[in-house]
Amino acid sequence: MAVTADHNIPNRSPLMAFLSRWLLTTNHKEIGTLYMWLSFVLFFIGGAMAMVIRMELFQPGIQFAEPLLYNQMVTLHGLIMVFGVVMPGFVGLANWQLPMMIGAPDMALPRLNNFSFWILPFAFTLLISTLFMEGGAPNFGWTFYAPLSTTYGPPSTDVFIFGVHLMGISSVLGAINIIVTIFNLRVKGMTLMKMPLFVWTWLITAFLLVMVMPVLAGAVTMVLTDRHFGTSFFAAAGGGDPLLFQHVFWFFGHPEVYILILPGFGIASQIIPTFARKKLFGYHSMVYATASIAILSFVVWGHHMFTTGMPLTAELFVMYATMLIAVPTGVKVFNWVATMWRGSITFETPMLFALGFVILFTIGGFSGLMLALVPADFQYHDTFFVVAHFHYVLYPGAIFGIMSAVYYWLPKWTGNMYDERLGKIHFWTAIIGVNMTFFPMHFLGLAGMPRRIVDYSLQFADFNMVASFGAGMLGLTQVLFLYIVIKTIRGGKKATGRVWEGAEGLEWTLASPAPLHTFETPPKFPTPEEDYPRD
Amino acid sequence: MTKNRNNQRKHTILLSGLAVGMLGFAFALVPLYAIFCEVTGINGKTYAQEIDDTPAVLQVSEREVTIQFLGQVGRGMPWEFRPMDTQLKVRLGEINLTSYYARNRATQAVTGQAVPSVSPFYASNYLHKIECFCFTQQLLEAGEEQQMSLRFYIDEDLPEEIKTLTLSYALFEVPELEVASLTLTNNLQ
Lengths: 535, 189
Ligand code: HEM
Ligand SMILES: [Cu+2]
Fold this sequence. Notes:
Chain A has about 525 residues and is mainly α. Chain A contains 15 helices and no strands. By secondary structure, chain B is an alpha+beta fold. In chain B, the strands form 2 sheets. Chain B has a 5-stranded mixed sheet, with no helix packed on it. A 4-stranded antiparallel sheet of chain B has the order 2-4-8-6, with no helix packed on it. The C terminus of chain B is likely disordered.
């Protein structure tokens, strides 16, 4: 099954060998690595755009970013972070970890896996190249509401649409691959209810992806035909309705935000038991909570549209349904805390990030609850309060989740331990930076500062300056993260197979670094009475 | 192993089917949305009432309400467009006639489509139009003017608290190319 890639073909220059190794690889570990690096590179590109935004907002008045440029930055920053950083980051982790965690030799559809990855660099090159096109990059926000993207969209909107199509195809194919792998390649004895939680959360995420990415594809296609082929899906002139766009978009959009966080839940559920040296509290309730969050996410898209004049009954329904999601989410937070209760906890970097995740994600959940209240949302909508909310769930949520997973599994991937002291510095600067950047945005929003506007009135100046300083710190410390990762790849204290004293699971029965091909013969899955074999 | 292979293929096909189905669902949202709005009357859209749906003898009630008329043109639409009556006092159940004035200021013929909207939106299901220029597209030659009539009555079941309602028309230039979505939504209007 393994294709040419790793059986070196003679008579090739080293460059060609290198290229064909990475271009043609069908190995889940190598593809996982590619995804992680893509995500990392885009993290810095999207981060640079965030720096432009924060520098512009450092003081009232227009410093250097004209409104048009500012709008392009906000749009590309959002698109890149969502589709280019968080999603590929999680997919990369899935590629590396899922086969090792379920005792499979590889993903079920390895060639499709290669294809899903290699679409992405093209998609993002296209998207970023719009910056240099006539009329500039898309400037309507990552939500591309009609008519901003139809009647008023710059010419590069068409390139953006093509890019979104490519990303959609990549994610759907990747998700199908993940589901087929989980359903068919589990080691004997690992029933669904014995799967590690990272596997569970990814299974559910993959179903969400298969169901909503096509809806996004539908939305961009309608925008395209409205722009060029005379249809009027979103144009009142031809009998369409611009509000329809928001319904279609958020039908995708709300499940999408759970796509961005569920694998993070899985990661926290792997890491916290390891460092608390206890079994995960409430495994079954974790699975049911994840599933109910995913199902509920399909009926609450209206909470993004409270101010569009929805009928009262719909507003009430959406409000209660949204608040209902807080229940399974609360179950999860409770379980994480209960797992740590009376555990013998140590605070290595992955654990620190996981704890930061639990606490700060919960703050984001609370501001979300505030936004779910219809009368409150009438005031908060389209202010910086919303910006504060989604950054709390995405940065210390999704991004910290990915970072803690990287620290946790990096020794398994590279065979070397990362530098614990630098890891801790990274964590503490990141957590201070995150709070300094995004916490003041709550106050700004409550005081009425609108989002997506390049300038603001004087009373918002102080908090904005604090936020910009925080952002600078947060951005800089990610360079340290890059340094730590490179340093670990190049050397360091050798990691054992088990790596962490309290780690449980099939991936830890392998040597570190994990050999390119693992579990060619299926491992033995221990019964509840047995322990995982140690090396 | 072969059984496993077959299962993998089966799952792959099923999941691809699900993805394609969801793409179809995205497009199905368009008519679903139109139907949903029509049934519930949300969005303030009013829809055509077939003449034979109208009861032969209408019960004219004592209750009077005020109905206001608005008219505006969409971006780039070269017509002058305004209501002849800005406000009428009408009785529930009584058939009324009013009209809008339109003139094409362009130097070539232009087709327009008026899109109605009622506020408060929950009044829209009680406003019945028997005859309306918005039922069809209107073609005006260069410089041509026209009075376009509107015949309507208001249902006697109109909720008590509504004393005034507003009927607003936005007039748009019909795009050159007309496609499926247009005819589809037109059928509902
Ligand atoms: C140093 C890090 C970051 C900074 C300083 C930052 C800053 C900002 C600011 C100021 C805005 C709002 C601009 C406006 O609406 O006027 C924004 C929007 C946004 N950010 Fe971030 N951000 C950072 C990281 C992230 C990350 C990691 C993600 C996602 C995983 C993310 C996702 C988004 C999204 C989706 C939007 C909304 C874009 C829109 O609505 O147009 N950001 N960011
Ligand atoms: Cu939402």
